[in-house]
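Reviewers of the previous submission asked for a worked example of the structure-prediction workflow described in the proposal, so we include one complete record here. The input consisted solely of the amino acid sequence. No template or homolog information was supplied to the procedure at any stage.
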Amino acid sequence: MTNQTNQKGKYRVGIDVGGTFTHAVAIDPEQGALVGRVKVPTTHSAKEGVALGIIQSLQKLLQEAGLSPDNVGFIAHSTTQATNALLEGDVVPVGIIGLGSGINSPFIKASTTLKNIELTPDKFLVTHSVFIDTAKEITREAIVKAVESLKAKGAKAIVVSEAFSVDDSTNEKKAIEFVRELNIPATAGSEVSQLYGLKVRTRTAAINAAMLPKMMESAEMTERGVRESGIKAPVMIMRSDGGVMDIETMRKRPILTLLSGPAAGVAAATMFLRIVDGVFLEVGGTSTDISAVSNGMAKIRGAEIGGHQIYMRTLDVRTVGIAGGSLPRIKNNQIHDVGPRSAHIAGLKYSSFSPDLKAEQLRVKLIKPIDGDPDDYLSLDAKDSETNYCITPTCASNLLGLVPEEDCAHGIKPSIEAGFKVLSDQLQISATDAATKLLDISVRKCIPVVKALIKDHKLDPELVTLVGGGGGAAAIVPHLAKTMGLNFKLAQSADVISAIGVALALIRETVERQVVNPTNEDILRIRHDAIEAVSQMGADPDSIEVQVEIDPRTNVVRAIAVGSNKAVVDDGTSKHDATDQEKLGQAATTLRVKEEQIKLELDGASFRIYAANRTESQIFGLFRKALKSIVVMDRKGQIRLQFRNAVYEVTTRAGALAVIESLLEKNAEWGDAGKVIPDAVLLAGSKIINLMGLLNTSQVVSFAQAELEMIPDSAQIVVIAKLA
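From that input alone, the workflow returned the following structure tokens.
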């Protein structure tokens, strides 16, 4: 693909490191277009590691897309290095220096003595510990002595951890400075988390420190390669929560890159595909990563390693062992299972992509792909060749006409028919029935995961859309949606969707504090810290958005700030704005009502609100509840918000706070936990301000006041309250 667009623009480059290939893409944010895409083999075994593949893909992209390095305004990459380090136990031994004094010393010493940390079964992080009494002032000599003692035991990275350092980190900072003067990688507990819990914080810091040497080497190699390519833009790295961070942050907290591969696809789901409420399935050849999106935000969960909690949050991505290349298993002349082994593992060629296959040249053979596997996996052997073929969900979906012609998984129809002719003769059923059975078994493995994500994250089943990305999306998602009775869409450029996600990901930082009964001032201070963090990484102040969440069970106040160094593009699915009729039809489809039930209620400068009045049966149909379902759409026709039941009021900036207070109080409900206010969102000029996650009206009003400070007086404000 050659770039024919304005070379004076600034392009966004994303590089996704996959298990087999490293993909790189370039996006023109002005045109909303993919202007370049390349792939190279991932360089796992190279001396430089995956960094070599990143540089190779970048250089190939610049050359093939005709891009000047000066025209690259943003570059980011995902990495498998941290994840692989834990899976393979490729980490360095860590020395832990515990700090404390007084009667708590035995507890502190015990909490900072971790022994060995299980990473995966049979893979351990080795740790050694010493304790320094801080009753007296910490000296350089004491730290040097402790470090030398730990190094003698084999430690190659150091952690300094003190109880209550989240309140006062003076001792930790002083000690870590002495350690770093000795030229050894080091992490302080308060650098990786501001949450209480000395043992969990120390464990998190130890895992972080164990990755430092290898990750720092890789980061420096990648940055050097980018600079040698002539690109001056800051190098960003994909985080596990779907955002990106600068290289300085990664050097301190490489643990944040865990699972950055799946996170890239989810970033594309929110930034490129603009999913509002849905389930995203990134379908590869062997497995499918499934995640949830609510109100345009990917859902997050706390991370665990080796069954132990750590202070890190990752996207809630759940992996299923079924995908586009999964092999069917045959027993008693029936398909009784599909996967988890795939064509790639078994070394078989897809019927879908093999030209000139003839049924008479093929025969059914059951195989054992690798030692320890059952011997009932289906293979199609060529009688006059050493090449062996297979039938997969990709082949079945092609046979049933579920793969669009423009999709990367669209196959060669005569070859697919030849493969299914041999299989159907063996099973003594029609080819269509064989393909349907194969897909039924395949999607059955995804259904419980999709249902669990909908339930766990309280998604509204009526508004959920299944969205497919990855090269195998068309093999699984259309049949899954049909089986579950859900809407679906397939991503454009599905095979490079993760690289697109990296290119479009927002700079992100999460600031967490534990505060009992947080005041409005506490909330605003944490909000300010989050804004400062992304600003320092290069986010444009005008682009920064913040959401605050309060967990009353753990007293954690969490501010998530995101921003971009340049405006984020649309998904490029349309070169022109949708017509009024198209927008109306899109709103009706989203709410699953007839077009005549939809009414355009608000036609604002930046947003439109479409509404449908409905009723819902309750208590076994004995009662009917009136609902007002709404869709918020931008002027181009992109759906930005959708609610099964909501109310809204239009006001000005001057009247916004009073309207917020009135609307929340009027629609609050009382339950076992006391008064519960509805979730709220503001449409403020061209911005969407998320007020969800706060506990009471006072907090919402205080947060809204801070957010509205930068909104022009003349802007129209719409206050939306989400009802049960």
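The two ends are 48 Å apart (CA to CA). We consider this example representative of the routine output the project will generate in years two and three.
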